[in-house]
Design a protein that fits this description.
The protein is mainly α. It folds into three domains: 2-148, Four Helix Bundle (Hemerythrin (Met), subunit A); 155-199; 233-310, Winged helix-like DNA-binding domain superfamily/Winged helix DNA-binding domain (Arc Repressor Mutant, subunit A, Orthogonal Bundle). The protein has 16 helices and no strands. The protein has helices spanning 2-8, 11-22, 40-54, 60-81, 83-94, 102-119, 128-148, 155-175, 181-187, 192-199, 221-225, 233-251, 255-264, 275-282, 286-302, 305-310. Helix 3 (40-54) runs antiparallel to helix 4 (60-81), helix 6 packs across helix 7 and helix 8 (155-175) packs across helix 9 (181-187). The longest helix is centred in the N-terminal third of the chain and has 22 residues, at 60-81.
């Protein structure tokens, strides 16, 4: 028995694994065990890791692994024997889902069945297939809800919304009229503010590719929301790379030639200077500055720098 074997391991190790497992959000554990068959491989890995960290060599480890393999083999047998049950629920109740493919829903249904195996008790007085139907349906429904909207709404909100909507329908049947939010809050035993938050959680979403009503529906929302004053990030990146390449080529020239070209073409401060302005800055004549610039450009056209600049065209 796996539960008895686990109880024979050092209490410090098991208590640590129990705490990690109980802290996980989601499904409620079985009343019989703190673990579930479907999570057993993960629990075994954690126990093995913890034993190594604490330097404990347990003779029970091989027995536990053998018993676990036997239990998982039994679980696989039960799952394979009830695959038709999952297939019938998917085809009869869900058909072709827009959100999930049939294959995905079958997989989710099998996961639901594995949950049922861990929680089923013969003392319930039901057949396993009858008990498993609830878990199969719930797991498929939750998987669909998880992927139905572009913005994911937590499952507990979706379930709370369903319950409140059901209460609202019941109250409308009784009163034969509109139902106030306070009445729904009283019927659902919740705060009115919380009820409003839950009922308003589903929003209608508009794709950015959808056409807007302005301009006769010609422009999509993506074009309408784009800031025309901002430079396209890709264009900005290309411009930055080009500037870096030009600066790299200019820097490979002689110091005086490099300085003249950078000032004349505005590579330093994006302000282009005339030959006369450059001459005053460098204490040179205008004609001398012009000759240096022409000489630098000629050197760039004839040297290896030309190949680098051609890559920018």
């Amino acid at each position: 028995d796996i539960d008895q074997l686990l109880n024979q391991f050092p209490k410090s190790v098991i208590d640590r694994i129990k705490k990690e497992d109980s802290d996980r959000p989601g499904r409620k554990r079985s009343n019989r065990w703190w673990w579930e068959p479907m999570s057993l491989p993960i629990i075994l890995l954690k126990i093995e890791k913890q034993l190594k960290q604490d330097g404990i060599q347990s003779v029970l480890w091989k027995k536990l692994r053998r018993s676990s393999q036997q239990l998982l083999s039994i679980q696989d047998t039960i799952v394979n024997a009830n695959l038709r049950l999952v297939a019938s629920i998917v085809s009869r109740e869900y058909g072709e889902s827009v959100v999930l493919s049939t294959h995905d829903m079958l997989q989710e249904g099998v996961i639901g069945m594995m949950k049922a195996i861990g929680k089923f008790d013969v003392s319930y007085g039901n057949r396993f297939s009858t008990y498993a139907i609830f878990w199969i349906r719930q797991t498929i429904r939750r998987a669909i809800e998880n992927q139905a909207d572009p913005i994911r709404i937590p499952l507990y909100i979706a379930e709370g919304r369903r319950k409140l909507q059901k209460k609202e329908i019941e109250l409308k049947k009784k009163t034969n009229g509109a139902v106030a939010l306070d009445q729904i809050a009283v019927a659902g035993k919740m705060d009115a503010k919380r009820v409003r938050q839950i009922l308003e959680s589903p929003k209608s979403y508009i794709s950015l590719e959808a056409f807007s009503q302005k301009n006769g529906g010609v422009d999509d929302y993506n074009a309408a929301l784009t800031d025309k004053m901002q430079i396209n990030p890709l264009d900005r990146l290309i411009d930055h790379e080009r500037k870096n390449m030009v600066n790299h080529v200019v820097d490979s020239l002689r110091t005086q030639e490099s300085s003249v070209l950078k000032l004349h073409y505005g590579l330093i401060d994006e302000h282009e200077h005339s030959y006369a302005e450059i001459g005053r800055k460098m204490n040179l004549s205008r004609e001398r500055v012009r000759k240096i610039a022409n000489q630098a450009l000629k050197r760039m056209r004839c040297g290896h720098q030309l190949n680098q600049l051609q890559e920018l065209i």
